[in-house]
């Protein structure tokens, strides 16, 4: 297209590295024009995320000369300019998408409403080249809807629009046609465009432009003001599509240019579907030229329509599906949808206290104690067969991926068995206990013998009842030597080893590993769903299964869970290798701990995990006695033993998980023949933790006296 020399409609960019251009800059400055500096300080540039490379930061500034403003402005180079202006949108419109959109060429015919559209397109970076055509000059009466100003009145509309656009993005390539589009230049105007926005009043031009666009396979979009009509004709995909969706039979018209205004009006009304006009729009139409001089157009509707067209440009520009068709989006209609906001489903306040039965008959006390045991996601993966003479606890593996080979359930059952032993000891009915790993189902049998006292275990009854997962931040302080001794002895008493990590360098290393494992857990569809399934939202889910979201200690961030629960949100993060927030949250919990303890067992057989569960519970109770806050930190790979196990967790991240598992074993000191049972965060000065609930015993006790022992 020929670019007219004057009037000036776009900035001229100068680069000081070119001596001739440098001279021109100096000449302009010396001529007394206004000089402005819009270069962003390097310190501010350094705050951009992800960080700019030194090469990017070194991009030399340019000088943009705006003749119509009698001004020259020192601006960032094109790369930095774009980055600073648009980079914050980079998740909504990814860097790659921005790049693709920046090569799009869009034409706009008719710059009254077209200017708002151009503005929306350029604000978002939806094109790299704009071709604007309008023969008309801006008048005061246009300022009802054209967001230009008095300084542009009397200027050609396309020129005025281009100038403002250029002030927004001086690097944008612009072409201007001050004669407007005509039957003779329509083909040339549309040539090379990726999309045409037809915003003309003239019926003739509507036909001419569509006819040419269809021949050149360019999609046409139109937006009209009254009740926001958005119209899309995908001639790029449907080259045989009738113009105007076939609403007007254009082929039947012999010569469009010969039509009288009286003949054109009904055709225009057909195109905009007058039946759908607003009442006042329709009344205006009838009164046009009588009690009202010109066609009414509301500025707000124009801006709203421009937003719709920008959405279309994004879709078409990125090759996302969008058929031909039309849609009305009337802000006034939308107000009919005004409604009370949905209240947050999570009411404030702690969870209800758990049921405790220390005063009941011994068996009931023992069963309640067993069911108070901790379990991953509070799934309570156990069944109890109860009789006067013995209690049998069967692990009941959960569908959760992290419960690899039911090992998490074995650990929980081991903890339940330990609690049962403590309660039995306190009630004087503790006999020997056995793990029947060879039976089906696997089970733990505890004999309940009259007169069976064990003062050491009995002393643990109260702290066992008081034990909770405490997710409060607490304070990091060194564990006193007697506490370390008590925790270590607790693990040893049940045949396990407790590895304690309290020095910051190792906590940092462990935090990185556990954090990254949690990031993977959040970003992997299956693991994430399992985790969400374990949450109990007050008023929505059963309160006695799962982790009450209020006990997570997320506070206001609880609503983040609603976002985490939306797969497309998390898929977007995944595609961006994002989600570092999840990693950092866990890492911070690790480094802010007084210590992290890992209960380790020799071997990975069924009985090892059951014993490990008992050891973990005994350590937890000992820590509670010492006034520490305890919460497990479970990486996804905790119970995986083989590559095949890891593949069941997150098939796409098997390698990463294997690497993380190896790093953890090294940091903690877990030999290949050993297995971790639970990783626990210990803190001082914890806040009081809300108590979690348990299912009623009637749901977990599956047989009475008579059938006990029939397993
Ligand atoms: C094997 C196992 C793994 C666990 N993993 C986590 C965990 O990753 N994060 C967490 O906050 N709590 C974890 N917990 C704690 C449980 O959520 C908690 O024990 C359960 O909700 C019952 O609450 P209570 O311990 O306060 O009685 C785990 C518990 C067990 C037994």
TrEMBL record:
Record Pfam families: ThiF (PF00899)
Gene Ontology annotations of biological process type: cyclic threonylcarbamoyladenosine biosynthetic process
Annotated GO MF terms: oxidoreductase activity; tRNA threonylcarbamoyladenosine dehydratase; ubiquitin-like modifier activating enzyme activity
Domain (THIF-type NAD/FAD binding fold) ranges: 87-222
Protein name: UBA/THIF-type NAD/FAD binding protein
